[in-house]
Design brief:
Layout lengths: L2 H12 L16 H6 L40 H14 L12 H9 L7 E2 L8 E6 L6 E5 L4 E5 L4 E6 L7 E6 L4 E6 L3 E6 L8 E4 L5 E7 L4 E6 L3 E6 L10 E6 L3 E6 L6 E5 L4 E5 L12 H6 L1 E3 L19 H5 L14 E6 L10 E8 L5 E8 L5 E10 L10 E10 L12 E2 L5 E6 L2 E6 L16 E2 L1 E7 L5 E6 L6 E5 L4 E4 L4
Parallel strand pairs: 17-18, 22-26
Antiparallel strand pairs: 1-30, 2-3, 3-4, 4-5, 6-7, 7-8, 8-9, 10-11, 11-12, 12-13, 14-15, 15-16, 16-18, 19-20, 20-21, 21-22, 23-24, 24-25, 25-27, 28-29, 29-30
Length: about 500
């Protein structure tokens, strides 16, 4: 579009018109466009014009894309199309997410849940429940058990589907669905197993490569690489495009000491690794096809940064007898990109923990916001006398040097947890829309939000870190809860405890 044309449309938007065009109300974009998107507000019909906020904070003016002075002025049809496309490109308003304003319905449903609404799925003891995972379509709930078994349930009818007896030779730690039929499990027996829901009598294949307990599975949907991590400190990638009954090709992607959990961001552009020594490793511009050549964890610690934006790109002086610059220790020549930051560039962060400024801590649980906005961790002090849940927003920025990390973490919200079940890892989770957090809380679960209105994180970022708001606490277990999970498709969440009970929570209508 030429500059003259843009000026003409700008002048048209600023001029006073006689009335609304194309069936839209004054100060309201084209009614036909919004009806086509199916974004009518609750309680309105196609014959009623939508009411848009015209004043107040900047957040309330997002839906109109206008300032308070211009929101009252009707727009022409051509300018409405221009505005609609612009807002869609910026990712704003109901033109992008028609259900953005319907979150209050889901929030009210979750907050109305009671212990009596929970359903006990386990019929006998299978040992502690270490992990829960829904299939992407929400039709199957998989349960990882301490006593070598995997349980499969229909979460809608609460019907037991099948028990995979002796799925592994030791504790089953984690489950990950690759799609609606294939899923992977990992175990303390150092192996990973692939399963097909259509043929559960036997494994698709067993993967060997780790030398210690395998604790975590991720999946890169872009490259179809399975990514696993274990207490041997290795992160290994597996090429599922070429798997056979004997396994599939694999290679060691990364190694570090004290590794606890590993996660990929939703767009697979970053990898986060938590450690038992309190450090958080972030790999930026992730390329899983290239291995990151790093000398040792001691060198990584020399490059650590704090969780404040000002120090995100600063590093400590190099140590030891190696005369190479510290930056060269972190990146292999093959990973460098001409004219920009390298692939797999590494940042080592010491997250700010409330109450733990003078003591070490262990980051036991690590989760990513479903939109990639933040990371969620649960950590305990080295003396196991305190537990915290913390939310850190990703701080994006231009790199100072070509090899400098481009991101740091800023603590936005936190809350102290009930220090019950010391020594056990408690897995917490985000809701599918990222507005709620479900955390194991003693013998129950606790639902939390960023503010009292359960707003999205980007709409309620505090100037200084603040406490998470408790929405609801539900106690329905007779033992310590170790893991929680939201359904990706239904208003339902699940929790599993140390004695092997699995509970489903959903509102009764």
């Amino acid at each position: 579009m030429s500059s003259d044309r843009r000026k003409e449309r700008k002048d048209d938007a600023e001029s006073q018109l006689d009335g609304p065009r194309d069936g839209g109300s004054a100060g309201d974009p084209d009614g036909d466009l919004y009806q086509a998107e199916g974004s009518l507000s609750p309680g309105t019909t196609s014959d009623q014009p939508q009411q848009r906020p015209t004043g107040g904070s900047d957040k309330s003016s997002i839906d109109t894309g206008l300032t308070n002075s211009t929101a009252k002025q009707p727009l022409s049809s051509g300018n409405n199309v221009f505005w609609w496309l612009r807002e869609r490109c910026l990712g704003r308003g109901v033109v992008v997410d028609p259900f953005r304003e319907n979150f209050r319905i889901m929030t009210s449903l979750y907050s109305s849940m009671n212990p009596a609404d929970s359903v006990n799925l386990s019929t006998r003891t299978h040992g502690a429940v270490f992990n829960l995972e829904y299939s992407p379509d929400g039709s199957v709930l998989a349960v990882a058990c301490e006593q070598t078994e995997v349980l499969l349930f229909d979460p809608i009818s609460s019907r037991h589907i099948k028990t995979l007896v002796e799925a592994h030779e030791d504790c089953v730690n984690n489950i990950r669905f690759l799609d609606n039929r294939l899923f992977a499990t990992c175990s303390d027996d150092t192996t990973i197993a692939l399963w097909d829901l259509r043929k559960l009598n036997s494994k698709v294949c067993t993967l060997h490569g780790h030398t210690s307990w395998v604790k975590n599975i991720e999946y890169d949907t872009n490259t179809r690489l399975l990514v696993t991590s274990g207490f041997d400190g290795n992160v290994i990638t597996w090429d599922t495009n070429r798997f056979t009954e004997d396994g599939c090709p694999h290679k060691k992607f990364f190694h570090t000491r004290y590794l606890m959990r590993m996660r990929l961001t939703p767009d697979c552009s970053k990898m986060l690794i938590s450690t038992s020594s309190g450090y958080l490793l972030i790999l930026h511009d992730l390329d899983l096809t290239q291995s990151l050549e790093v000398g040792s964890y001691r060198i990584l610690r020399a490059r650590r940064t704090t969780a404040s934006p000002d120090s995100a790109t600063s590093g400590s002086p190099r140590r030891g007898n190696d005369s190479r610059p510290a930056s060269n220790k972190l990146f292999s020549p093959a990973s460098q990109r001409e004219g920009g930051s390298p692939r797999n560039s590494l940042e080592v962060v010491t997250p700010e923990i409330p109450g733990e400024r003078d003591r070490g801590n262990c980051i036991t649980s690590l989760q990513l916001h479903p939109k990639g906005l933040a990371t969620l961790i649960r950590c305990s002090s080295n003396t196991d006398d305190q537990e915290w849940t913390c939310v850190y927003e990703f701080q994006e920025g231009a790199p100072v040097r070509a090899v400098s990390p481009r991101c740091s973490l800023k603590l936005t919200h936190y809350i102290e947890e009930a220090n019950v079940g010391r020594g056990y890892i408690k897995e917490l989770c985000f809701s599918p829309d990222g507005r709620l957090i479900c955390s194991p809380y003693g013998y129950g679960i606790r639902l939390m939000a960023f503010d009292d209105q359960c707003s999205e994180l980007v709409d309620c970022l505090p100037k200084e870190s603040s406490c998470l708001k408790e929405i609801r606490s539900i106690y329905s277990h007779s033992d310590v809860v170790l893991t929680t999970k939201f359904s990706p498709t239904h208003c339902q969440l699940a929790s599993g405890c140390l004695s092997g009970r699995v509970s489903l929570y959903q509102p009764k209508f």
